[in-house]
Amino acid sequence: MRKISESTVRRLSLYLRFLEQSQGQGLTTISSGELARRGGTTSAQVRKDLSFFGSFGKRGLGYSVPELATQIRDILGLDRSYRVVLVGAGRIGGALAQYEGFRRRGFDITAIYDCDPRKIGTRWSGLLVRDVRKLQADLKKEPIDIAIVATPAEAAQEVVNQLVAGGVGAILNFAPVAIDAPAAVIVKHVNMAAELETLSYALANR
Amino acid sequence: MRKISESTVRRLSLYLRFLEQSQGQGLTTISSGELARRGGTTSAQVRKDLSFFGSFGKRGLGYSVPELATQIRDILGLDRSYRVVLVGAGRIGGALAQYEGFRRRGFDITAIYDCDPRKIGTRWSGLLVRDVRKLQADLKKEPIDIAIVATPAEAAQEVVNQLVAGGVGAILNFAPVAIDAPAAVIVKHVNMAAELETLSYALANR
Fold first, then answer.
1. Chain A hits for B196, Cβ within 8 Å
2. Least CB-CB distance to B13: which of A104, A188, A197?
3. Do B94 and A99 touch (CB under 8 A)?
4. ipTM strictly over 0.85?
5. pLDDT digits over B130-177, tens only?
6. What is the pTM of this model?
7. Residues 34 to 73 of B: which have CB under 8 A from any A CB?
8. Alpha helices in chain A (DSSP H)
9. Domains of chain B (ranges, CATH numbers)
């Protein structure tokens, strides 16, 4: 299979959400035009995205909603669940811990860590906030797939070092700083300002 | 100027953050290799991204940090400030309202709206939470550039209708639902689960 670009992965993720909403409404087929309209793109782009993995709608009938949803889930690796830890029980961390979309997609936040003694021992969305100094030892006992780092900039690298030593496979970094990790660990940097910057770019260049 | 893809805009946004950090550390030049390492990409990609707008580093010297930062700011439309309103004073809204990165980039959140009488009249990060029923009237008096919609799914479209009627230019939609707006209004959908899905895709396909 050809490697899919991040933009395509993002669009597949959106299509999947719309397919699931359509399924909830009892729809069994959907056209590329409808997927395009809801995903803010073109029919041609939808057909191109879906042809990457050999899915073709039937002319005049469109795509089968449940089949396409299953195919996209497989492509995105969502045919299994992932164990996730969240490090940093601040505002971003709090919003993420309670984001219901994660669990629905099979991303199970199994633990939250912080260094603040006032937070350690409290419960967030039913999860105990643990002492970040126990992170590495805990990871040895309970391996995880993905870590979300939502610490202040100055704490992020040390947390990442512990996550790497603990065998984490992928890191989603919300801390506003570049982090170093071995090439085998997948790192993705989330920059909330970048979301607004795609808008300012579009406003400035329309 | 050629139209730049969203992936490129996102990388430019990351480069800009690293350039500003480098500037803060007193560095005057930076190599494509260093930008690539910090941005999780390749030197070739960095050179390609920057060549879009005619910026070329000097062999052996790299790019001038302040010049490149200014160029990227211009490209991203960050040479001005933007008036932003936030609708929805829930968990995501709360995290966004207090995100210091927005103001630093010239995105000034000027007002927060909610429909909950217990929230209306309280202050969030120094901003009064206003009654969403006054949104459209307020927009007539105080035009804004960008709106962030962080409401529940079922409230999003009605809020968007009011924002459009009030003349907003661009909408960042955090509500987990597709929204309709006229083509002249730029709409960007943010799906927090998609960030994790780019990781599950990478884990499943490495």
1. 82, 84, 102, 105, 107, 146, 172
2. A197
3. no
4. yes
5. 999 999 999 999 999 999 999 988 899 999 999 999 999 999 998 878
6. 0.80
7. 38-40
8. 6-24, 32-39, 43-51, 65-75, 91-97, 100-104, 135-141, 153-165, 192-204
9. 6-75 (1.10.10.10), 82-193 (3.40.50.720)
